[in-house]
Amino acid sequence: MTTPSDSLVSLVTGARRGIGRVIALRLARLGPVALNDIPQGMDELEQVAAEVRAAGGRALVAPGDVTNGADVEQVVKRVVDEFGRLDVLVNNAGITRDGLLVRMTDEQWRSVLEVNLTGAFLCSRAAAKVMMKQRSGRIINMASVVGVMGNAGQANYAASKAGLIGLTKSLARELAPRGIAVNAVAPGFIVSPMTDALSEDAKQKLFSLIPLGRLGTAEDVAEVVAFLACSGSSYITGQVVQVDGGMRM
To answer: Which residues are catalytic?
Structure first.
């Protein structure tokens, strides 16, 4: 694996907004970054790419559907054609379709599992082919504390994130002999438009569950991802790093 002073080539899925955007901007400080999201999000992807370039970094906009194997293979090929290698894959693309079990539709169940879990499988498979030849690489899966503890009204989301944790541990064992580390990051409650809309009373109840007494930020998550991407984490694999302020210690 390259040293922290070397340039790391990263691919971030779901990079057009939220945590994915902040992760992409953070990894762009380590080297070239490829930005992936659905084709309908091209304008937002271009805006993120512009931010990277304005800061002196290199960015490739690589739209594609992570649930489509052919799209995924093409995205990875574009990254390698453009930058010559792929060092870091961040499987961040994800959706929610919340609902109580008895009211959850087949489509709500399938769509969340397809994007959150199958998408990560397809991207990991494509990236691993490149990384195995390099005999180095990092795959970082964005899980969730919901995948660890469950959550009412999110059976599909929790199942997808728990599955992602299982995928992480299996790939870590499988790919370690080729010098590839695979880890998961499990954010807790992160500042978002949804949490901003909560009443002060609801926020205080939420804070009471978190020993550090605050919500996390996308930057908190991105810093952990950046650490796992660099050589300082070279002896860490198969782990789930919970970025949750101690909520699930």
So the answer is: 157
Total structural domains in the chain? 1
Q: Give residue 170's domain range.
A: 10-243
Give the predicted TM-score (pTM) of the model: 0.95
Cα distance between residue 79 and residue 61, in whole Å: 9
User: Are 169 and 212 a contacting pair, CB within 8 Å?
Assistant: no
Write out the chain's pLDDT in tens, 249 residues: 443 347 999 999 999 999 999 999 999 999 999 999 999 989 999 999 999 999 999 999 999 999 999 999 999 999 999 999 999 999 999 999 999 999 999 999 999 999 999 999 999 999 999 999 999 999 999 999 999 999 999 999 999 999 999 999 999 999 999 999 999 999 999 998 767 877 888 888 889 999 999 999 999 999 999 999 999 999 999 999 999 999 998
Does residue 93 lie in a domain region?
A: yes
